[in-house]
Amino acid sequence: MTFINQPIPDGPVPGPFGDVRRRAGIGWLFAGIWLVFLSKPLGEILKHREMAERVLGIAALVLFALGYLGFFGWARYQNRQGTQLPVVVRIGFLVALLAMTALMIPAAGESSLTTLVYVEALGMMLLPLRAGVFLGLSLLALVEISLRLVPGWHDDGTYGFSIVLGGLAVFGLRRAILRSVELAEARKDFAELAVQEERNRFARDLHDILGHSLTVITVKAELAGRLIPANPDRAAAEVADVEQLARAALADVRAAVAGYRELSLAGELVAARAALQAAEIKADLPTTVDEVPEKNRELFAWVVREGVTNVIRHSGAKRCRIELGKSSIEVIDDGKGPTPSGEMSGHGLIGLRERANQTGATVTVGTAPDGGFRLAVRVDP
């Protein structure tokens, strides 16, 4: 028997015995196999002398088996449709099975109690857990009392033991399938979170790439426009730089799409110097990155890119200084300083904080000693 009161989600659902959805296709086989134990009450009915009671017993046994399989199929159909049978219908079905058991008693005698194992198993599957346990205890009490009070019936312990064993087996299977379904849902949630995280990462990378590149391109294009009347040769050089930057930005975007892009700290410092000079901001930058551990260089490269981009875009500064250490980096300008709230804002800084969190680093923004803006990142040892 399989648990039929729990909706099975779309797609493969791993379970203790394989895919739950794949097992659903052979659920009828598992349900029908257990009917072999009805051979005992059937044998007793066929040996009964009274024809009327024999016919009644056979009819009740056949209806019991057909009802069990029919309701099993109906419940599974409802499950596949994403709906559940009302509790009243489930209880009514169990009562009908008990009625069929009662009709077998005149011909089958105590062997009719075999059918109570099916009632308990279905009850554990169809009813809430507490109700299923209560049903099992009630049936166990009914069996024990009947075997002691009905003349000619003998208590050999097998009926009560079968009810307990059947209930425990179905309870274990029910819990296993529930855990399988929960695991499938959790895996689905994890997959969706992974997709969302990858989208966020890609959007963050594109923002950082294009934000920096387009800012420098804009500054150089404005500079070239001012130089055309007075110095055409330098204006032409700036236009060539704009073309080169545009091509580099396109290459970065393609690399980001491919997922293989890594920043170079030395390269970002060189690009930052050129961008600051084009914006007519004095650059005081490190000339070497040898003291920075390899593991910190990519993060520090992002700090340089984001920090310099913000200096050019928003600060109104005349000077920018970058201080580089083994486990820390600071980007300082003498411009307008941070916003009145002093909080980190903007997609670039938010993305930088996310990158820092992934490597265990701390991002700090605030007012520089000279009144400008200070962006600092420190990697915890």
Commentary on this structure:
- This protein has twelve helices and seven strands.
- The protein has 381 residues and is α+β, with helices and mostly antiparallel strands.
- The chain folds into two domains: 14-190, no CATH class; 281-381, Heat Shock Protein 90 (2-Layer Sandwich).
- Helix 4 runs antiparallel to helix 5 (87-108) and helix 8 runs antiparallel to helix 9 (232-258).
- Keywords: Kinase, Membrane, Transferase, Transmembrane, Transmembrane helix, Two-component regulatory system.
- InterPro entries: HATPase_C_sf (IPR036890), Sensor_HK_TwoCompSys (IPR050482), Sig_transdc_His_kin_sub3_dim/P (IPR011712).
- Pfam families: HisKA_3.
- Residues 198-262 form the Signal transduction histidine kinase subgroup 3 dimerisation and phosphoacceptor domain.
Please work out how many helical segments DSSP would assign. Answer: 12
Structural class, judged by helices and strands? Answer: alpha+beta
Order of helices and strands: EEHHHHHHHHHHEHEEHEE
Based on DSSP secondary structure assignment, what is the total number of beta strands?
Answer: 7
Q: Give me the Rg, rounded.
A: 38 Å
Number of domains: 2
Shape: rod-shaped
Average pLDDT score? 79
Main β-sheet, spatial strand arrangement: 3-4-5-7-6
Strand content: 5-15%
As a percent range, the share of helical residues equals: 55-70%
Q: Whole-Å distance between the termini?
A: 57 Å
- Uncertain residue ranges: 1-25
The largest sheet, given as strand count, sense and whether it forms a barrel, is: 5 strands, mixed
Domain Signal transduction histidine kinase subgroup 3 dimerisation and phosphoacceptor: 198-262
InterPro entries: HATPase_C_sf, Sensor_HK_TwoCompSys, Sig_transdc_His_kin_sub3_dim/P
Organism: Kribbella orskensis
Transmembrane segments: 25-43, 55-75, 87-109, 121-147, 159-178
